Amino acid sequence: MHERLSLPFRLAAGAAALAVCSAASAAQVNLMVTIENLAAANGIAFAPLHVGFNNGSFDAFDSGSPAGPEIISVAELGGGAQWQAAFAAADPTSTRAAIGGALLPGASSSKLFSLIDTTSNPFFTFAAMALPSNDHFIGNDSPTQYQLFGAAGNLLISSIVQTAGDIWDAGSETFDSAAAAFVAGSDATLRTAEGGNVGLNFAGLAAFNGVNTAAGYVFNSGLGASSEVYRISFATVPEPESLALMLPGLLAIGWVGRRRPKPGAERADSPLATASPV
Predict the structure, then answer these.
(1) What is the pTM of this model?
(2) Which of 80, 142, 146, 254 lies deepest, with the highest CB count within 10 Å?
(3) Contact of 191 with 93, CB cutoff 8 Å
(4) CB atoms within 10 A of CB 169
(5) How many C-beta atoms surround the C-beta of residue 104 within 10 A?
(6) What DSSP designation does 158 have?
(7) How close are the terminal C-alpha atoms of the chain, in Å?
């Protein structure tokens, strides 16, 4: 093969290899999700984070309106059974799960989600109870607030940071430290309905200052509106199979890139080039 043809062939083979991998992974990705509690020591903790990769049709709550059973199941006890069930009913193709357990200040947790359909489910929805509280939580009001993937399956958001000013009060349960979650000696099932509306309100957490938490520390809110309390990070993870898909293209690149000497010509450092004629 002429040397002047090798470069175009190399480029074509490389493009073919990349095209194979791109076609195989454009609609589906493996995604590592990491959550971190950014609150100061002895500050707020969080119940497991409920997440869903979805088409934007599931609306868990609306600011200024009464909380429904979906968000109450997250905000009052953290379990989120109704949230998960309602999500599945509204968007059967969504990928949903809960990440971690009780997330104490400074702690983190991760979960790998395999083969998320980025074309059908480009949006990300989340919710987690803030602890200690009767009915405080973090979560996105609009189901399309966070578009995680672009049309080509590319990751548009690397992380989501929540501040204290992003903490919601579900308005569904009256304040009572004896019936609040994460307070030592309390019974969180002894709720008193409040009948209010969902609204942003982190200041109410300061009412728990000085209580003993279930984790053994004395709670101190110490929050200002701009205090960062939570981070959700995203990173795509390639599958071993995707490397296998690249192999034919890589072999092609190596084949066309091999230099072939012209007939009758030898390299200067070849034994044949320096041998004396017989």
Answers:
(1) 0.79
(2) 80
(3) no
(4) 26
(5) 19
(6) S
(7) 31
